[in-house]
Amino acid sequence: MTTPAKYLFKPPPQFSKRARISSFAEYQRLYEESIRKPSQFWAREAGELLWEKRWKKVLDWKPPFAQWFIGGKINVAENCLDRHLNGPRKNKAAILWEGEPGEKRTLTYQQLHRQVCLFSNVLKRNGVKKGHRVLIYMPLIPEAVIAMLACARIGAVHSVIFGGFSAASIQERLADSKAKIIVTADGGYRRGQIIPLKRNVDHALQGSHSVRRVIVFRRNYADIPIHEGRDVWWHREMEAVQAECPAEPLDSEHPLFILYTSGSTGKPKGILHTTGGYLTGVYSTTKYIFDLREEDVYWCTADVGWIAGHSYVVYGPLSNGATCLMYEGAPNWPEPDRFWKMIAEYGVTILYTAPTAIRSFIKWGDHWPARHDLSSLRLLGTVGEPINPEAWRWYHHHIGGDRCPIMDTWWQTETGAILISPLPGATPLKPGTATFPFFGIDAAIVDDEGREVLDGTEGKLVLRQPWPSMLRTIYEDKKRYKKQYWSEVKGCYFTGDGAHRDPEGYFWISGRIDDVLNVAGHRLGSAEVESALIAHPSVAEAAVVGRPDELKGQGIVAFVTVRTGIPTTPALRKELREYVAQQIGSIAKPDEVRFTEALPKTRSGKIMRRLLKEIATSGQVTGDITTLEDFNVLTQLIPEE
Ligand code: WT7
Fold it and tell me: Using CA atoms, how far apart are residues 581 and 344, in angstroms rounded to an integer?
């Protein structure tokens, strides 16, 4: 059965005519070629970048460890900046920035280059050397990008921590990365409030730690304590250095950054990305999927604290010489039309955002976008979770004026770059599917035995071949890397996602099938929220599951048993929710805390989250309960009508 034509959104002919890949047949031909000879495809893409020394071998694959462009020397910052200074891009805007209170700044490629060189020297002056880890905990301001690129320029390894994470989360990441330096700001703005970034850093540094220096950017003149000998001001340091700083030629496999993300078990994992392969992946996908043109104003609304911010706010677009819009604050500040106002004002042509944001826009009402001229837009994108077809259609009509193709892009922190996505001039779209794999990406859907399933059957989404922007390992934990990604399905990278293909081969990704939650596009491990709860003195045991949420995709429900003698009051419920926010960050705050006498377990003592998920979602249990140890637990959990 094929899809009736009326359900397909074909690429507008005008769009296809100008696009790099202008028909589906061309995509198919190139895709097949790229799968037959992946090294050839990736070498061609890498060849468009600036290498100080060309590689000797494209790929060295000793499963599950890959090395790309071996023998090559390259610098990511040089590719994002210096490379553009020899021609007309020199005075082109690299960053158009707006703060939440409304300040505006523009940085041309030349200006950004100068700031990055200065800050590279500031890092050096403060003892940072090649290979050292630098934590960046900043608002979404140009200085966050400057700090990242400065690290890349001198071969330091950045680890950006999202500004919404708590002091305890900083501590955890510090303990793992053993960074000696933190770059932060006095505060950032969010929905009219000041986020006390420096204060959180101070809290995180109360115990023993590896940090020698904290560099503080002055964003909002917040009254903050300065620890003599440890804290220095960004602006003072910048005055003390020269603007000359050559880019360090780095091995293609030199680490570029560590980004922490949640897994199904234990503490967050430090996902390690390296230099040449990562840049090739983000450069190539940005070019083809957003089909970038010189005159575009490109806006990816992600924060630099997430992988989308690394790959599609910073490295992908800047390596392509794009003009990128950045906005510090909330989409509904001061009113729910902030995005639409900005699109009209800056003439944004490409908008890349998250389904959860789109669902909020729908809730706030059609009249907000309708007030603004959005006709500059030519292309839309989404990322973070499956987009429900209603949200897709709303986005297409109310934002894209029925003329802009929507790129539903599937990828992960671990994959570094987009792996499954339409191409705007080539792929007929269906609302709700990320469509087809990108060039060189061998995606498949398999059953528990690793056999490819038939079309229409749900299975595990895996990748059968390595790709340049893949994670190289979990920072200092090769064992966990192997176990987490390469042990579930023999010989394949397991994504943790479930998916099926329709009769026309489109990939429909249904979301995580492990114990990872996706709350408003943010990734959280059930285990992480559980250990935060268990750390509270009143809690004996906790189990955390997701349940469908209209706005956030998933909401968090925590089932909690308390220690003997502790009264289960509404006050305790509130306290526990706050406690989780303190331990992890407010994104992890449970929507609901349910007290229970016991948790359903298997005879071997494993909590049956599947049952809890059903109870949290529908209030009943329909699935198999034969392995349940104590049936009485169930009756207690299911609320009486
Ligand atoms: C998980 C990865 C990549 C940047 C943001 C999230 C889900 C992501 C899609 C999509 C269906 C998607 C998956 C994936 N996901 N994009 N287009 N369709 N699901 O990165 O935090 O590493 O999370 O997000 O479940 O595994 P992340």
Answer: 36
* The 592-595 sheet, strands edge to edge: 539-549, 553-562, 592-595
- Domains plus CATH for the chain? 107-251 (3.40.50.980), 520-637 (3.30.300.30)
* 562: number of Cβ within 10 Å: 21
Q: Cα of 144 to ligand 1 centre, how many Å?
A: 23
Nearest-atom index, ligand 1, CA of 409:
17
| CA pair distance 76, 268, nearest whole angstrom | 26
Q: Which of 87, 88, 77 is nearest to 117 (CA)?
A: 77
Q: How many CB atoms lie within 10 A of CB 289?
A: 24
The protein residue with its alpha carbon nearest to ligand 1, atom 18, reads 386
Mutation probe of ligand 1 site: the residue of 518, 528, 587 with most atoms within 8 A of C-beta:
518
Closest CA to 593 of 634, 536, 524, 523: 536
| Dihedral angle sign, alpha carbons of residues 209, 184, 318, 49 | negative
Nearest CA to 420 out of 400, 440, 405, 403 is that of: 440
Answer for the pair 487, 64: CB distance below 8 angstroms, yes or no. Answer: no
- Reported as a single tens digit per residue, the pLDDT across 255-311 is 999 999 988 777 889 999 999 999 999 999 999 999 999 999 999 999 999 999 999
Q: Residue 205 in 3-state DSSP?
A: coil
How close is the Cα of 228 to the center of ligand 1, in Å? 42
Q: What is the rounded CA–CA span in Å between residue 59 and residue 46?
A: 12
Question: For residue range 170-228, what is the model confidence (pLDDT) as tens digits?
Answer: 999 999 999 999 999 999 999 999 999 999 999 999 988 999 999 999 999 888 999 99
CA angle 631, 637, 640 (to 5 degrees): 110
Helices (H), 205-250: 234-239
**Dihedral over alpha carbons 482, 487, 493, 497 (to 10 degrees):** -120
pTM as predicted: 0.94
Q: Can you give 393-436 as a three-state secondary structure string?
A: HHHHHHHCCCCCCEEECECCCCCCCCCECCCCCCCCECCCCCEC
Dist CA 453 CA 605 (whole Å): 32
136, amino acid identity = I
Identity of the amino acid at 563: R
| CB-based contact 81:149 (threshold 8 Å) | yes
The answer to whether 424 touches 15, Cβ cutoff 8 Å, is yes
Long-range contacts (CB closer than 8 Å, 24 or more residues apart) made by 478-485: 480/269, 481/64, 482/64, 484/263, 484/269, 485/64, 485/414
Q: What is the 3-state secondary structure (H, E, C) of 441-483?
A: CCEEEECCCCCECCCCCCEEEEECCCCCCCCCEECCCHHHHHH
